[in-house]
Structure formats: C-alpha cells, structure tokens
Amino acid sequence: MRKITRRSFLAAAAACGAAAALTACGGSSASSAVASAAADGQKFTIGICQLVQHAALDAATQGFEDALTASFGENVTFDFQNAQGDSATCATITNGFVSAGVDLIMANATPALQAAQSATNTIPVLGTSVTEYGVALGLTDFDGIVGGNISVADNLGIKARNYIWSAYIFQGLFAAIGGVVMMTRQFSASGNLALQGPMEVIPMVIVGGTSMAGGRGGALKTVGGVVLLKIIYNAMTMFSIPAPLQPFVKGLILLVVIVSDKYMERRHEKV
Q1: CB 206 within 8 A of CB 212
Q2: Longest dimension (CA), the chain
Q3: Which of 109, 144, 153, 204 could form a disulfide with 158 if both were Cys (CB 3.0 to 4.6 A apart)?
Q4: What is the number of other CB atoms lying within 10 angstroms of the CB of residue 76?
Q5: Are 149 and 129 in contact (CB under 8 A)?
Q6: What is the DSSP string of 141-176?
Q7: Beta strand 44-50 with 76-82: parallel, antiparallel or unpaired?
C-alpha cells in the first residue's frame, strides 16, 4: 500500500482543480492525472469557499470533490461554505478555515481567492473560476508561470527540464558568438581575452531583474541592465578613474547587486 504524503495530496489537489475547471467549461476529465492512492490513516481537510450558487461554480466544486474523493476516499473531507455573493462573507469563511487549520483552501471565484490570499500565507490555496489571477492577486509581474519551482511546474504538466536544457544550449551558442565577435575585434585568439567579463556581465543581468536563484527575469529587462551599467562603466573612464581602481569599483557593484538580490528573494518568499 502506497503512503499518502502531503506533497502527493497537494499535487493531486492541483490536478483535480484543473479537472474541475474543465468540468465547469464542459471539457474532458483530468482524472488520469491523479493516481488512486490507498489509505494509511492520514486525514486531510479541505475548506471550500464558493462565492455564490451558480451552475458553472457548482460544477467546478463538484468536479473537484469527486476527483479527490475518487483518489483519496475517506482520507479527505470537505468543509463547503457558500458566501451567498458577499465578499465580506468570503473573508469570514476563509478566516474560519485558517482558524480550523485546514490542509488546503479551494477558492471558487475571484472574491473568494482574494479573501483566501488575505487570510493566510501558510496554507496552500487553490483558485478556480478566476478570469485573471494576476489582477485578482495584485501581482503586477504575473505571467502565469510558476517561477523556479520545478516540482510544481512538473505537476502542472510544464516540461521544465526541456526549458533548462534550452537555456544551457542557447547560453553556449551565444557565448560562442560572443567569442567570435571578440576575436574579430582583437584580431587574435586567447583564453585571457575575457577574464573580466563575468565581473561586468553578472551585475548587468541581476540589475536587469534576473534572480540568481532562478525563476524570474526577462530579455528586455536584461537589455536595460546592460545599458545602465555600461553607462556607469564608460563614466568611470570619462571621469579618469585610475585603471587599477576600476575592477574594485566593478567588484563593489557586483557585491551590492548580489546582496540586493538576496534581500529581494527573502522578501519575495515572505510575501
């Protein structure tokens, strides 16, 4: 008999949420994404906050409950509550779920998701029947992806490792192109041509918004980081900063951006 872990339970819940959304929209079932698990005595409680009684919302909730019940049987129980169309009631319901210590909150509709977000940052929240998650959660840079969490990406069907391989391939390709361009400018080939390259490039990438932990960044933002720091590097020459001192300044810039990146990463985790 296979033990039910919290991770497998949450992964199955996410898959069931996708199945519920498809059910509400008249799509096909995603039950094949959730393997049937045997009981080992561990119980899970899910709080379901639904904004209002509506055919589509009812179908999403029912599909979610049916799929999880089929996979976990009596190991999962549901605390379903209807907010009767009142956003304030959604807040009361989700706060009650937090006080009760449920294992997962399923928020059905945008006000329910917003209330769940405000109520907890420790209990996993699954949202459905939401038109735009970025707008609902106030995420200005939300693009629908899962950041650097490979496990979550795999659970959602995203082939994360293919993207990682592609990143390494393109990185090697552009490094080769850069080497060829540098040789044509120097009219020579040597392994010492770009010894200071990382000291200049890494701060540009981080200033451009790419996290050293992965999961965040963009090409256009990186271009902005390149332009900004290139201006600073050229300004050092224009203001006659001694050449032996320039690597020190670049190193100081690198230290500042790394510390700032770690600070923003920890702040992001707390949020």
Answers
A1: yes
A2: 75
A3: 153
A4: 23
A5: no
A6: T--S--TT-HHHHHHTT--HHHHHHHHHHHHHHHHH
A7: parallel
Q: Could you read off the pLDDT of 9-47 as tens digits, one per residue?
A: 555 555 555 444 434 444 433 333 334 343 455 788 999
- Element holding 59 (H helix, E strand): helix 55-72
CB atoms within 10 A of CB 147: 14
With tokens 């008999």, the residue in question is 1
**Is 202:254 a contact under the CB 8 Å cutoff?**
yes
Chain center to CA of 157: 14
Q: In this structure, what token pair is assigned to residue 101? A: 């210590």
**pTM for the full model?**
0.46
Token pair 């409680």 is found at: 45
Token readout for 174 is 């552009």
Residues 6+ apart with CB under 8 A from 260: 206
**Which amino acid type is present at position 129?**
S
Check: CB of residue 160 under 8 Å from CB of residue 153: yes
For residue 5, the surrounding DSSP H or E stretch is none
Cα separation values, 110 from 57, 106, 128, 271, Å = 11, 11, 8, 19
Per-residue tens of pLDDT for the chain, all 271 residues: 344 454 555 555 555 554 444 344 444 333 333 343 434 557 889 999 999 999 989 998 998 898 888 888 888 899 999 999 999 999 999 999 999 999 899 999 999 999 998 999 888 888 888 877 777 777 776 656 555 556 556 655 667 778 888 888 998 998 889 888 888 887 877 777 777 777 778 888 888 877 776 666 777 888 888 898 889 888 888 888 888 888 888 888 888 888 887 777 776 655 4
If you search the block for the tokens 């329910």, which residue do you land on?
A: 112
SS3 call for 270: helix
